[in-house]
Amino acid sequence: MTPPEEPTRSAAAAASNAESRESPREALVTAVRVELSDTHVSGTTRNVSENGLLLVTDEDLEVSIEYLDGEQPVSRRGRIVRVQGLSGNGLGIAIAFDADA
Question: Quick check: is 18 in a domain?
Answer without folding.
Answer: no
